[in-house]
Amino acid sequence: MRRNCLALSLASLALPLSIGCSTGNLACGPGTVRKDDLCVPQCGPGASLDGGTCVPATSGVGGDANGSSANSGGSGPGTATSASAASGGTTSATTSGSTATSSGGGGTSGLTALLPKATFDALFLHRGTAPCKGAFYTYEALLAAAEQYPDFVATGSDDDRKRELAAFLANIGHETTGGWPAAPDGPYSWGLCWVTEGGAVAPGLLPEYCAPSAEWPCAPGKKYFGRGPIQLSWNANYGQAGAALGIDLLNEPDKVASDPGLAFKTALWFWMTPQAPKPSCHDIMTGGWVPTAADVAAGRVAGFGMTINVINGGLECGVPSLPNVLDRIGYFEHFASILGVDPGPHLTCDKMQHY
Fold first, then answer.
1. Mean pLDDT of the region 45-62
2. Which of 82, 159, 202, 303 meets the CB 3.0–4.6 Å disulfide criterion with 197?
3. What are phi and psi of 275, to 5 degrees?
């Protein structure tokens, strides 16, 4: 995930002016450092700052095997957690989504039982609080998207299903967070705040995230910055997601930010779809993933930390937990508590090698 540190106004909330990062005499927010009187992302190991964005040193695209974009550090108040972990490589994704056994009957009945609308609204309490744009993310849009992925939150034991739901909501909450440590109602009440990378930054100022690809070529004049709950980014991911969903997202990437149902479908596509050698996040959380010998040697084990590895291991794993990793874990533990399930072991990926 890439993250651009922003300074937006929360005057309507009678809160401090700086919410993405602070300037002037104020301190920079978590995950950012001061450079030339500006707050810029604090890049993780193996990455450097390029135009306000952390870029893996080994690639102009991203650090993971599927070319995933890098996220650099924790989200400060009101900062949009930019481009998704699902990014820019050329690895072809399978479309099966799950190898685990489903215990439910498909559809959305299992999801609505675990996540009624009142709970969804409580978990994402401030998604529509200005300047957040998260009123876009409706409960009905999530249910409509989940109909296309009947194994989602319908696989394994009751605890497996609750834990998967908490993990999915935690990751999309972090990706789109507007929270900060002293935020009203706590930092984890501000998930699903932003729809596009950079929050209120004009699209013309955002990166193109275009990597050379014969299979998923960039369309002229189009940008593939983060959009939607998982902040889908890079042309290869837009291409693969669009192919799976039957929509030409290479030529029309803005649809992800204009259709809430499609936005949630792209998030569920990434969550449910293995991209070899990576397993799907769904299989990780529901017991469908069996680590290979290489995974075991690399310290990769099932648990919430492994979803971080799949999403953004290139810059978040194999090092002491960075602020953005701790933010993900904070969301997960908070949501798991509300859903009434133990979060389980292996919450971080600091001892895991990335793919």
1. 36
2. 82
3. -130, 90
Catalytic residues: 175
Q: Count Cβ atoms within 10 A of the Cβ of residue 9 and give its class: 0-12 exposed, 13-18 middle, 19 or more buried.
A: middle
Q: Following DSSP, what letter does each residue of 205-231 receive, concatenated?
A: GS-------SSSPPPTT-----BTTTT
The single-letter DSSP state of residue 101 is P
Secondary structure element (H or E) that encloses residue 34, with its range:
strand 32-35
Task: Find residue 155's DSSP bridge partners.
Answer: 102
Span of 40-44, 134-138, 304-308 with lowest mean pLDDT: 40-44
Q: Are 309 and 300 in contact (CB under 8 A)?
A: yes
How many angstroms separate the CA atoms of 189 and 179, rounded?
A: 7
Each residue of 217-259: pLDDT tens digit? Answer: 999 999 999 999 999 999 999 999 999 999 999 999 999 999 9
Q: How far apart are CA 134 and CA 126, in angstroms?
A: 8
Three-state DSSP string of 247-299:
CCCCCCHHHHHCCHHHHHHHHHHHHHCCECCECCHHHHHHCCCCCCHHHHHCC
- Model confidence at 315, pLDDT cuts 50, 70, 90, reads confident
Which stretches does DSSP call E strand in 126-173?
Answer: none
User: pTM for this one?
Assistant: 0.77
pLDDT in tens, 286-307: 999 999 999 999 999 999 999 9
What tokens were used for 49?
């700052």
Say how many C-beta atoms besides its own lie within 10 A of residue 299's C-beta. 18
CA angle 310, 201, 34 (to 5 degrees): 75
If residue 315 lies in a helix (H) or strand (E), which one and from where to where? helix 304-316
Alpha carbon dihedral 38, 211, 83, 286, in 10-degree steps, equals -150
237 with 311: CB under 8 angstroms? no
